[in-house]
């Protein structure tokens, strides 16, 4: 059951007097970004290293992990729409989305630590433990990401402010990802030495504590200005109409799914590439530093480029340019370290707008759903995108594990020619194919800036 919503503006306190259509303070913009930073420190750490942890530290076969990732991540993704409905029904003095920054902080930190803890049960016991802790971590992800993504539309309905808010958020997200992924192997080495299990466990503890602190800061600094006032309940049919009749959302989600699969295949297997193909595990730090550092720099240019050109054009042109790096890496010798690192930088810089602008455009799809159906259901629309993201992660993780298994991957030994080829393909040509598909799909996105302004004017008249 969903609630048909009516948007009303309000002034919460003297330090929150910005109108929903006006400019937000820098404290609030940064605070909002820290909320997503706290999530991505954990989410991307898990995406980048959990497969490696399971295969090379826990000794679980890639085939078993492939099934684990697919089952757990799909269950996790299915929970997203449920979380969206829960959020839409939430009533608190802090609003609907903001309180979850506080409520999700503890479980997100706790289950991160437990996922990277080896319990030393029986073989069957360890597998059950992996399923349970991973499922609970996934549910914690949903508790965090659905409300955070919903906050964009709840904090402001100004299109340029949303773009700026999302850009600042993504800059902080990429700083978090940059530190999280690039520092993981050095921290694991520092804490554990040759004991990788201890090293990754304590690294996870550090990241869990950081995530907890950032969530609290975000909770204390953000405010909901576009409040949702429930009016009339609707059944499943009208609920589905919010998604099915939302053409921009369907196109955006399809494009983002292709991006998420390609991006996460590369992210998941980058540590394998430097460890076994390049024989320089120490370069995992430099490679991820350049990849996500480039993404961070790219985000700085996105607001100005989006003002000059339409957001869709920025996404298409930049992603098309990124294809050069994927094709180039496919034909680069493992000994050409400078070129490999340069291509990682190019890939990170030009692929980033597909991610950054997609999350900003999602808020437009929330408004489109209200304009098209008369139902404003932020949680359901936002959760559909989160579902897409997690589905992409699930497919990428499972594909990577099964592909490694099929190629004959054996952990902690010199790899066969077929295994090395599979690892290279998953860092180059395979993600490149998915990025190309993402570009083709986003070309059909229908909401331009002029159309959005016209749509919002009609919505204002109805409200």
UniProtKB/TrEMBL annotation:
GO molecular function: symporter activity
One Pfam match: MFS_2
Gene3D superfamilies: MFS general substrate transporter like domains
Record keywords, A-Z: Cell membrane, Membrane, Symport, Transmembrane, Transmembrane helix, Transport
Keyword Cell membrane: yes
GO cellular component, one term: plasma membrane
Membrane topology classification: Multi-pass membrane protein
Family annotation (CDD domains): MFS_MelB_like
Membrane-traversing stretches: 37-54, 60-79, 100-122, 128-151, 171-192, 204-222, 243-263, 283-302, 314-333, 339-362, 391-409, 429-447
PANTHER family reported for this sequence: MAJOR FACILITATOR SUPERFAMILY (MFS) PROFILE DOMAIN-CONTAINING PROTEIN (PTHR11328:SF24), MAJOR FACILITATOR SUPERFAMILY DOMAIN-CONTAINING PROTEIN (PTHR11328)
UniProt xrefs under NCBIfam families: gph
Protein name per the record: Transporter, major facilitator family protein
